């Protein structure tokens, strides 16, 4: 069985290169970690059982549910073939009342596997805070996630790129709020160059190496990740090639929006709240 990352993160029809065994029973079972709506937080999902659908017969392994008829089959030759559909069933190990189901297709020569269905479907909802920050761009973000969920990498890339192009100016301006001293001076100087170009990749290139430590996680630089992805463009590239870059852009975009723009929003809300409190205290003093 491919690792848990495939089941947890891969979109429908995105190929996962993996040498499958010859026999269905040799596919290893693996637990996964995903969000449970009942528990309202990420939980371990325990493997229950798997099915292989072929020629109206079902070969099944795993724990049997009560009163479920099973056709015992003992194949003498390799029974895992191209285009076989395999179903993996999981249940939340905590509440034991929420299931996740994945339908997988065996690829050519058993060299890859891909999802052809899953329940519940890929989540295309937008977090409330992110939606408030993105404002008019929320619709493009949702369209990008829909494309991504169906492995339309070119479409997802295009939607996420459009958002970056529209908000990059505000985003880069807001980053300077996180800098002080000499680092701030260097960044502000680079911003002058940013204002002279309309090319998004060039804008990012001018400041990507001047980010404050708070915006760098270990060896990852979100602006550099976005810059590298945008620099490749779309021309002559496949959905599969664009899909990985779309994923990188979305992940980095969400991180930056939350770390920079959301922080500015919270600062503004705090400032407004404090002004109201001080004004209320001032009026109270005047009355006395």
TrEMBL record:
This is DUF4145 domain-containing protein.
């Amino acid at each position: 069985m491919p690792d848990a990352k495939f089941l947890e993160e891969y979109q429908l029809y995105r190929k996962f290169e993996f040498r499958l065994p010859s026999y269905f029973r040799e596919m290893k079972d693996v637990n996964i970690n995903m969000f449970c709506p009942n528990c309202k937080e990420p939980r371990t999902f325990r493997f229950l059982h798997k099915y292989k659908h072929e020629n109206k017969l079902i070969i099944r392994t795993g724990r049997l549910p009560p009163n479920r008829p099973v056709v015992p089959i003992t194949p003498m030759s390799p029974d895992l073939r191209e285009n076989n559909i395999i179903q993996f069933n999981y249940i939340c190990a905590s509440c034991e009342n929420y299931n996740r189901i994945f339908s997988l297709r065996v690829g050519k020569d058993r060299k890859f596997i891909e999802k052809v269905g899953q329940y519940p479907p890929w989540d295309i909802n937008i977090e409330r805070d992110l939606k408030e920050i993105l404002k008019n761009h929320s619709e493009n973000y949702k369209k990008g996630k829909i494309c991504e969920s169906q492995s339309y990498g070119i479409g997802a890339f295009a939607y996420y790129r459009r958002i970056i192009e529209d908000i990059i100016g505000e985003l880069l301006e807001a980053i300077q709020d996180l800098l002080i001293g000499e680092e701030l001076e260097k960044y502000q100087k680079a911003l002058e160059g940013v204002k002279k170009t309309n090319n998004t990749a060039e804008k990012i290139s001018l400041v990507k190496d001047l980010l404050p430590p708070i915006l760098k996680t270990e060896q990852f630089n979100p602006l550099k990740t976005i810059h590298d992805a945008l620099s490749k463009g779309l021309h002559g590239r496949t959905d599969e090639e664009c899909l990985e870059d779309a994923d990188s852009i979305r992940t980095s975009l969400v991180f930056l929006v939350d770390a920079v723009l959301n922080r500015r929003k919270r600062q503004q809300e705090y400032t407004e709240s404090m002004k109201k409190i001080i004004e209320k205290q001032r009026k109270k003093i005047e009355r006395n």
